[in-house]
């Protein structure tokens, strides 16, 4: 009888530990799937696809080409940023500072990007033969060029900021000027009051002096 | 697969709900794509080959720059600024696929000239901002640092001016105009300290 109970506890213990292990394992799996995608949503790509689907009126050829160029630019930016990140990330994974889930996400994104580039090249060839060979080169030039275009906006923003700063400075200067004038007036006022008091005191003294001799005379 | 809610209205790509080019509600901006479309139309349906430059724009810019230089030499600074500003606007509108190196050079020279014109009119803030643009575009060029230094002296920020001028001298140790400006700034600083 005792051996039966022993067997039951034994098996029950096994099942319990399996359950616990399974529970944590499942949670971990979920956590891996939760890892964020390497890049945010590819907006230029979505834009191109939406443009292709436009009816009444259909998108013009130039619009589609522009959208495709934008999509290629996004791909180029992503390739550049991945190339930069790859070495660093590989080192971090080797050290164990970063989990394998991030590395998995990275390699998946890399593969996706490869397909995206192939898709862009194919699309470009549908517009014009052999555009696929040059579109990425053009796009990378455009990415560089866009950086210097940013200057236009920056310049405007900077001008406004500097003007604002200048206005503030002037306000402050004006404020200090007014303040110092007020201080000056107050000082002058104080001095005047003081002078008046002194004058009164002197007058008093003079009166006393004047009255004393008289009293002396009287005493004589 | 995600899509963007858009439509085509008056030959422009706009957001689907409000027909706006830049829509804060939909959080979308179609300016880039419409700009690019406008530039692509001017190539008559050709695909832009890498490194291609339309000569017309460069000619226009060069002409306006010359106009500006003539005005500047004749001390008509206001007109010079107007000419340079026009040229800068055209230069900023250069199609994206044209070589960025070319655009940078062109813009740097134009901004530098406009900065000089602003300095001549004692509009220090504008001169300062333009000079900073020059440095951003073409850092190893001592002229940009010289203009920045001049503008800062004008604004009364002497210490910063000396810093900028010294940086400019590092790129071109023989620039006499920078050395002169530096001396001017240093005497200015001494005078300030004496006060």
TrEMBL record, chain A:
<dbReference type="InterPro" id="IPR018624">
    <property type="entry name" value="Sec66"/>
</dbReference>
<dbReference type="GO" id="GO:0031207">
    <property type="term" value="C:Sec62/Sec63 complex"/>
</dbReference>
<dbReference type="GO" id="GO:0031204">
    <property type="term" value="P:post-translational protein targeting to membrane, translocation"/>
</dbReference>
<keyword id="KW-0472">Membrane</keyword>
<keyword id="KW-0812">Transmembrane</keyword>
<keyword id="KW-1133">Transmembrane helix</keyword>
<feature type="transmembrane region" description="Helical">
    <location>
        <begin position="6"/>
        <end position="25"/>
    </location>
</feature>
<feature type="compositionally biased region" description="Basic and acidic residues">
    <location>
        <begin position="155"/>
        <end position="195"/>
    </location>
</feature>
<protein>
    <submittedName>
        <fullName>Translocation protein S66</fullName>
    </submittedName>
</protein>
<dbReference type="Pfam" id="PF09802">
    <property type="entry name" value="Sec66"/>
</dbReference>
<feature type="compositionally biased region" description="Basic residues">
    <location>
        <begin position="208"/>
        <end position="220"/>
    </location>
</feature>
<feature type="region of interest" description="Disordered">
    <location>
        <begin position="155"/>
        <end position="220"/>
    </location>
</feature>
Automatic annotation (TrEMBL), chain B:
<feature type="domain" description="C2H2-type">
    <location>
        <begin position="21"/>
        <end position="48"/>
    </location>
</feature>
<protein>
    <recommendedName>
        <fullName>C2H2-type domain-containing protein</fullName>
    </recommendedName>
</protein>
<keyword id="KW-0863">Zinc-finger</keyword>
<feature type="repeat" description="TPR">
    <location>
        <begin position="142"/>
        <end position="175"/>
    </location>
</feature>
<keyword id="KW-0677">Repeat</keyword>
<dbReference type="GO" id="GO:0008270">
    <property type="term" value="F:zinc ion binding"/>
</dbReference>
<dbReference type="GO" id="GO:0051879">
    <property type="term" value="F:Hsp90 protein binding"/>
</dbReference>
<keyword id="KW-0802">TPR repeat</keyword>
<dbReference type="InterPro" id="IPR011990">
    <property type="entry name" value="TPR-like_helical_dom_sf"/>
</dbReference>
<dbReference type="Pfam" id="PF13181">
    <property type="entry name" value="TPR_8"/>
</dbReference>
<keyword id="KW-0862">Zinc</keyword>
<keyword id="KW-0479">Metal-binding</keyword>
<dbReference type="InterPro" id="IPR019734">
    <property type="entry name" value="TPR_rpt"/>
</dbReference>
<dbReference type="InterPro" id="IPR013087">
    <property type="entry name" value="Znf_C2H2_type"/>
</dbReference>
């Amino acid at each position: 009888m005792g051996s039966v109970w022993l067997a039951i506890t034994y098996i029950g213990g096994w099942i319990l530990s399996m359950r616990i292990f399974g529970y944590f394992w499942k949670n971990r799996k979920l956590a891996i799937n939760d890892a964020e995608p390497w890049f945010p949503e590819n907006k230029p790509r979505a834009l191109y696809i939406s443009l292709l689907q436009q009816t009444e009126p259909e998108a013009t050829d130039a619009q589609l080409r522009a959208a495709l160029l934008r999509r290629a630019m996004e791909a180029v930016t992503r390739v550049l940023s991945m190339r930069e990140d790859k070495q660093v990330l590989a080192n971090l994974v080797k050290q164990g500072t970063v989990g394998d889930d991030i590395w998995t996400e990275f390699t998946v994104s890399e593969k996706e990007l490869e397909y995206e580039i192939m898709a862009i090249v194919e699309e470009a060839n549908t517009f014009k033969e052999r555009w696929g060979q040059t579109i990425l080169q053009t796009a990378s030039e455009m990415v560089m060029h866009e950086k210097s275009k940013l200057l236009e906006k920056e310049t405007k923003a900077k001008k406004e900021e500097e003007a604002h700063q200048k206005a503030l400075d002037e306000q402050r200067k004006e404020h200090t000027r007014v303040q110092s004038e007020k201080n000056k007036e107050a000082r002058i006022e104080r001095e005047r009051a003081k002078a008046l008091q002194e004058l009164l005191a002197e007058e008093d003294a003079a009166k006393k002096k004047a009255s004393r001799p008289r009293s002396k005379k009287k005493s004589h | 697969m995600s899509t963007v809610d858009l439509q085509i209205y008056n030959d422009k790509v706009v957001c689907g709900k409000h027909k706006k080019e830049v829509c804060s509600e939909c959080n979308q901006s179609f300016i880039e794509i419409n700009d690019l479309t406008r530039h692509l139309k001017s190539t008559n349906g050709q695909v832009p080959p890498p490194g291609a430059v339309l000569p017309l724009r460069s000619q226009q810019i060069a002409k306006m720059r010359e106009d500006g230089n003539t005005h500047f030499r004749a001390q008509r600074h206001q007109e010079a600024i107007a000419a340079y500003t026009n040229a800068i606007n055209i230069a900023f509108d250069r199609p994206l696929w044209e070589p960025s190196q070319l655009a940078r050079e062109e813009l740097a020279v134009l901004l530098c000239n406009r900065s000089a014109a602003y300095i001549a009119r004692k509009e220090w803030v504008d001169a300062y901002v333009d000079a900073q643009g020059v440095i951003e575009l073409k850092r190893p060029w001592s002229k940009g640092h010289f203009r920045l230094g001049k503008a800062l002296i004008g604004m009364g920020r002497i210490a910063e001016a000396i810093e900028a001028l010294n940086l400019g001298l590092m790129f071109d140790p023989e620039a006499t105009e920078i050395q002169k400006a530096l001396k001017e700034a240093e005497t200015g600083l001494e005078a300030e300290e004496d006060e």
